[in-house]
Amino acid sequence: MASFGTQQPVAAAGQKKSIGPNDCNVPQAGTDGISSLNWSPTANFLISSNWDSGVRVWEAACNPQNTNQPVQVQPKAQVNHENSMPVLDTCFSADGSTVFSCGADKAVRMWRLGETPPNNIPQQIGAHDKPIQSVGFLSKSNLVVSGGWDAKLKFWDTRSPTPVGEFQLPERVYDLDVQGGLMVVATANRQVIIYDVSGPQPREHSRKESPLKYQSRCVSCFPDQTGFAIGSIEGRVGVQYIQKIPNKDHFAFKCHRQDSNVYSVNCLAFQNVYGTFATVGSDGVVTFWDKDNKQRLKAFPAIGQTIPCAAFNAQGNMFAYASSYNWSKGSQFYSPGSTPNEIYVHYTPEDEIKPKAAKKK
User: Fold this and answer.
1) 85-122: pLDDT as tens digits
2) 160 is a domain residue
3) pLDDT attached to residue 12
4) Contacts for 104-108 with beta carbons within 8 Å, 24 or more apart?
5) Which of 49, 63, 82, 244 is the most exposed place for a label (fewest CB within 10 A)?
6) pLDDT reported for residue 331
C-alpha cells in the first residue's frame, strides 16, 4: 500500500493542541487519562471514560456556517465507578438511552441517561475476575458483551446479574468491537476471534492470527460488516475481510512513524457514511484513510501529545479525539502538571473524509 506513505506532518512542540484551528475544546474533560470516546447512535451525545473513575456525557451541536466555531459542546452529566478505579471503556445501547461502562473495578455498569444513580455510582450488571478492558452492545439480541483480562468474554441481560453466556478465550482481551451482526475480539498473543452476533445466541465464526507482527492495540469493524481493521504497537494497520470479496484483498500498511521512530496505533474510528476511517497514535497524529482506494485522505499536523482514542458521530460530520497520557509507559513517565487531559471535537467536511477518485495506474 505504498500510495499511503508513512511520513506524518510534524508540528513544533507546544505550538498545536488541536488538529484544527477551530476545533471545540470540550469542557470538564477529567483529571486523568482518557481511555475511550463514543457517540450515541441516535443523537449527538458524546461519552468518555477516564482513569480518574469518571464517565462523562456532553451534548454537541454542529453549525458549519459558523466558521469560527462550527461545533459547540455542553457538559450534561457525570457518574463514577467505585473506589476511584479507572474506567477503561464505554458504549451506548442501540436506542441511545443507556450507557454501559467497564474498568479496573472488574464490574460492568449501566447508567440510564437522565437519571442520577444512588451515590452517583452506575448500577452493576456484571463482573469478571480481573479488570475489564472492553464493553459492547449487541443490537440484534439486546445483550451487553464484556471482555476482560481474565481471558473471558461474557454476555449480559441487564435484568440478571448472571451472564447468559460465556466464552473462554485464548488470552486477555485487548479490544473488541461490534457492528450489527459482526463482533471482532483482539487478544494478547496476536489472536483474533470473529463472532456472528446476528441471532439471539452469539457464536464463534472463526479464529486467526493477527496479520501484524506485534501486539494488537485496537480493532474496529467496517460499517458494512464485511471485515475489520486492526492496529498494533508497531505503527501498522491490517485490513481484513470476513469472506472473499471480488477485487478486494487483505492488506496492511505502515503509519504513525517519523524517521526511525515507530508509534502505537491507539484507535481506529470508521465514518459510517463513507466507510472511510481515522487512525490516531502515540505520535499525536490524526490521519484519515480510504481503505477501498488505498489512499490517505488527510494527514493533520501532530499536536505534540499522545492521542489515545477517537470517534466519529453517527452523521459523520463530527470527529472527537482525546489528548492525554495513556499509561502505556507506566507511572514513571506520568507528569500531572505537564500532561493535560483534553477532548476536542473537529467539524469534518466532506472533502476531508469522502473517498476521492482512484488514482490511475
Assistant:
1) 999 999 999 999 999 999 999 999 999 999 999 999 99
2) yes
3) 45
4) 104/131, 105/81, 105/131, 106/130, 106/131, 106/132, 106/148, 107/81, 107/82, 107/132, 108/132, 108/135, 108/144, 108/146, 108/154, 108/156
5) 244
6) 64
Burial (CB < 10 A; 0-12, 13-18, 19+), residue 329, is exposed
CATH code (residue 98)? 2.130.10.10
Residues sharing a CB contact under 8 Å with residue 136, sequence separation 6 or more, in sequence order:
91, 144, 145, 146, 176, 177, 178, 183
* Grid cell digits, residue 272: 459510517
What would you report as the CA-atom Rg of the chain, rounded to the nearest whole angstrom? Answer: 19
Pairing of strands 107-112, 251-254: unpaired
Q: How many CB atoms lie within 10 A of CB 62?
A: 18
DSSP-assigned letters across all residues of 19-88: SSTT-EE-S---SS-EEEEEE-SSSSEEEEEETTSEEEEEEEEE-TT-TT-SEEEEEEEEEE-GGGPPEE
- The continuous run of DSSP H or E covering 353 comes out as helix 350-353
Do residues 312 and 277 make contact, with C-beta atoms less than 8 angstroms apart? no
What are the φ/ψ torsions at residue 328 (nearest 5 degrees)? -70, -20
229 within some domain: yes
Q: How many separate domains does the chain show?
A: 1
Domain encompassing residue 117: 2-327
Q: 291 lies in a domain?
A: yes
> What is the rounded average pLDDT of the residues 75-82?
96
pLDDT at residue 259 in the model: 84
**Contact at 8 Å (CB) between 89 and 81?**
no
Instruction: Give the mean model confidence (pLDDT) for residues 152-177.
Output: 96
Does residue 173 fall inside a structural domain? yes
Q: What are phi and psi for residue 354, nearest 5 degrees?
A: -75, 140
CA dist 54 and 328 (Å) reads 19
Alpha-carbon dihedral angle through residues 18, 270, 183, 138, given to the nearest 10 degrees: 80
Our CA dihedral for 178, 314, 278, 66, rounded to 10 degrees, sits at -160
